[in-house]
């Protein structure tokens, strides 16, 4: 895979994972799960607008129904004091996850790659880690992401972090490092 395509794909995938985690942290579970349904209309919009794909009247009608359902949940959650930042993160996660899914197909067709070949091109650090370390080490690295998301929420998004919570996080990170 050419380096530029590799970087584009992995950056969008990383943004998708990060924003999905942050969206779940900032939003209610119902809004988070329902907002993810907007990936369907987003993908359909991009594919019809830029890739020449057409959809039946039934599919378009079902997309309108999805959008209406998400709007109802969003309005309800706004009354529960959902944050604008949380809604923006949900929107970015929808766009980035949708683009990632679209790029899977585009990259496979463009570079004549199977699903396994695309994965091995875009996730070498994951494979290196699994190949060189145990599954426990891999889990520790994965959970360090959770700690970074929690700290990022405190540092950049104004989450409240109590002394006990900070102490617990420091203990968990110390245990992972150890």
UniProtKB/TrEMBL annotation:
It is found in: Membrane. Keywords: Membrane, Transmembrane, Transmembrane helix. Its main location: membrane. GO terms for cellular component: membrane. The chain crosses the membrane at residues 7-26, 32-52, 59-76, 82-104. It is a multi-pass membrane protein. Pfam families: TPT (PF03151). Residues 6-120 form the Sugar phosphate transporter domain. This is UDP-galactose transporter 2.
């Amino acid at each position: 895979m050419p380096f530029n395509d590799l970087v584009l794909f992995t950056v969008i995938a990383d943004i998708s994972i990060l924003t999905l985690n942050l969206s779940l942290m900032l939003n209610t579970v119902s809004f988070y799960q329902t907002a993810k349904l907007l990936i369907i209309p987003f993908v359909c919009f991009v594919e019809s607008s830029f890739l020449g794909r057409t959809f039946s009247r039934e599919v378009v009608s079902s997309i309108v129904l999805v959008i209406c359902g998400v709007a109802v949940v969003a309005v309800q959650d706004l009354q529960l004091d959902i944050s604008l930042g949380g809604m923006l993160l949900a929107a970015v996660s929808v766009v980035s996850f949708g683009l990632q899914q679209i790029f899977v197909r585009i990259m496979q067709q463009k570079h004549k790659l199977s699903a396994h070949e695309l994965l091995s091109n875009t996730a070498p650090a994951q494979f290196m880690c699994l190949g060189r370390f145990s599954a426990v080490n891999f889990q520790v690295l994965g959970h360090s992401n959770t700690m970074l998301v929690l700290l990022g929420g405190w540092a950049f998004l104004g989450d409240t972090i109590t002394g006990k919570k900070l102490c617990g996080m420091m203990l968990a990170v110390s245990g992972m490092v150890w």
